[in-house]
């Protein structure tokens, strides 16, 4: 009977130890679950805080936009006034880059209204590789391109050579280095 009591006591101790271990594991799982819930709550708080800040950000951007617009308007007005400003001696002060841009723009517009512009040869012609059908279509419209001041010639199957461009963009006396186009004087059409 004494042996049975010892076995029963040992089994009872093992049962209590196993039960304590299971209770500890359950408590750890509950603690981890609560930790996860707390982390997700922090994520929700951060997202809500960011959502609350968006209207403030939009207002700030709108404020800077109106400020920048007024600055740009002031700069534009000052530059326009500077373009026609006169010095005390009566000399007109001109914004050179703006004047050049205006001259090039006016030249392009006049050339397009007049059916193209005077051409110039390129020092180094450009070879453009295309598929054969696209090359044929481009060469078929070479006359229209020439009216706009662009010299294009076939260069094998599916390739073209761009030999000349509009003279308003550079020196018309430069000829085609390869000689694939006409001579420079022939490239420059009289307008």
Please characterize this protein's 3D structure.
By secondary structure, the chain is α+β, with helices and mostly antiparallel strands. Helix content is 62%, strand content 14%. A three-stranded antiparallel beta sheet has the order 3-5-4. The radius of gyration is 41 Å and the shape is elongated. The model is unreliable at 169-191 (pLDDT under 50).
> Uncertain runs with pLDDT below 50, 5 residues or more?
169-191
Overall morphology: elongated
Number of strands: 5
Average predicted local confidence, pLDDT:
75
How do the helices and strands follow one another from N- to C-terminus? HEEHEHHEEH
Range of strand content = 5-15%
Instruction: List the strand order in the largest sheet.
Output: 3-5-4
- Please give the radius of gyration in angstroms: 41 Å
Class computed from helices, strands and strand pairing: alpha+beta
- What is the terminal separation in angstroms? 130 Å
Tally of helical segments: 5
Secondary structure: helix percent = 55-70%
Q: Report on the biggest sheet.
A: 3 strands, antiparallel
Short description:
The chain is α+β, with helices and mostly antiparallel strands. The chain is built from five helices and five strands. Strand 1 and strand 2 (92-93) form a beta hairpin.
Question: Mind sketching the topology for me?
Answer:
Blueprint: H1 2-83, E1 85-86, E2 92-93, H2 96-113, E3 119-129, H3 132-140, H4 142-147, E4 151-154, E5 159-166, H5 184-187
Key terms:
disordered C terminus, 14% strand, single chain, 191 residues, elongated, alpha+beta, two-stranded antiparallel sheet
């Amino acid at each position: 009977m004494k042996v049975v009591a010892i076995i029963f006591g040992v089994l009872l101790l093992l049962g209590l130890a196993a039960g304590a271990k299971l209770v500890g594991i359950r408590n750890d799982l509950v603690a981890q679950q609560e930790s996860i819930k707390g982390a997700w709550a922090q994520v929700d708080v951060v997202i809500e805080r960011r959502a609350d800040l968006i209207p403030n950000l939009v207002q700030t951007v709108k404020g800077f936009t109106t400020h920048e617009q007024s600055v740009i308007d002031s700069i534009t007005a000052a530059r326009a006034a500077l373009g026609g400003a006169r010095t005390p001696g009566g000399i007109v002060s001109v914004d050179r880059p703006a004047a050049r841009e205006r001259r090039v723009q006016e030249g392009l517009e006049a050339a397009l209204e007049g059916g193209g512009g005077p051409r110039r040869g390129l020092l180094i012609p450009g070879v453009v590789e295309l598929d054969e059908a696209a090359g044929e279509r481009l060469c078929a419209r070479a006359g229209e391109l020439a009216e706009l001041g662009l010299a294009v010639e076939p260069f094998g199957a599916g390739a073209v050579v761009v030999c000349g461009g509009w003279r308003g963009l550079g020196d018309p006396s430069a000829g085609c280095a390869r000689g694939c186009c006409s001579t420079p004087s022939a490239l420059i059409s009289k307008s």
